[in-house]
């Protein structure tokens, strides 16, 4: 309940942070994080769990189609496709709270890799989502 309230507060406050996401966070990812690989890429069961975790945690801001809502960025952009698994893992761990992206360090690391494995299955912007 408290967590839900905190999320609502965060969502509300980030409405004022409409500046388009610039990807500036990528420059803050340390080299050793940047080089990490998601051990669960391509694992069907991990992708299925990652999808559920995504729908539960991420869709309020990024949308069921991951195209971003209310000024939040798409997770099907060229930027995300070109980011390494490690970049995404770093972003999920730390977030970018000043820009309205919460940290997800409360999720076990395995769940963050599951989410990333799911994100890797999403089609680029402009291509239809699989059913
Ligand atoms: C409360 C709203 C909110 C929720 C919930 C949220 N995000 Fe975000 N997310 C944002 C915002 C705002 C940004 C833009 C941050 C920036 O500009 O650096 C962002 C940025 C990102 C980025 C970088 C995008 C880019 O193009 O630079 C990734 C990756 C991401 N989010 C993944 C996730 C995942 C995965 C979840 C669920 C575990 C999630 N987010 C949940 C608001 C949210």
Blueprint of the fold:
Blueprint lengths: L1 H13 L16 H4 L9 H14 L1 H4 L15 H5 L2 H10 L14 H11 L12
The structure holds heme C.
Q: Catalogue the unreliable spans.
A: none
Largest sheet composition: none
Figure out the total of helices. 7
CATH C-level label: Mainly Alpha
Q: Please give the domain count.
A: 1
Shape descriptor reads: globular
The helix-strand sequence is: HHHHHHH
Helical amount among residues, as a percent range? 40-55%
User: Radius of gyration, rounded?
Assistant: 14 Å
Distance between the termini: 32 Å
Give the name of the CATH superfamily: Cytochrome c-like domain
CATH topology: Cytochrome Bc1 Complex, Chain D, domain 2
The name of the CATH architecture is: Orthogonal Bundle
Structural class label: mainly alpha
Protein architecture, described:
- The longest helix is centred in the middle third of the chain and has 14 residues, at 44-57.
- With 131 residues, this protein is mainly alpha-helical.
- The protein has one domain (2-119): Cytochrome Bc1 Complex, Chain D, domain 2 (Orthogonal Bundle), CATH 1.10.760.10.
- The protein contains 7 helices and no strands.
- The protein is globular and about 35 Å long.
- The protein has helices at residues 2-14, 31-34, 44-57, 59-62, 78-82, 85-94, 109-119.
- The N and C termini lie far apart (32 Å).
- The model has no long low-confidence stretch (mean pLDDT 90).
- The site of heme C (HEC) has 27 residues, from helix 1, helix 4, helix 5 and helix 6.
């Amino acid at each position: 309940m408290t967590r839900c309230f905190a999320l609502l507060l965060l969502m509300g406050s980030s409405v004022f942070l409409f500046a388009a996401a610039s990807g500036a966070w990528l420059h803050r990812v340390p080299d050793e994080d940047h080089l990490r690989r998601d051990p669960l890429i391509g694992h069907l069961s991990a992708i299925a769990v990652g999808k559920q975790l995504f729908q539960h945690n991420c869709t309020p801001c990024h949308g069921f189609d991951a195209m971003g809502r209310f000024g939040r960025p798409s997770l099907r952009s060229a930027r995300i496709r070109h980011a390494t698994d490690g970049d995404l893992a770093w972003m999920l761990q730390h977030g970018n709270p000043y820009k309205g992206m919460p940290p997800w360090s409360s999720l076990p690391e395995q769940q963050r890799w599951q989410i990333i494995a799911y994100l890797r299955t999403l089609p680029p912007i402009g291509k239809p989502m699989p059913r």
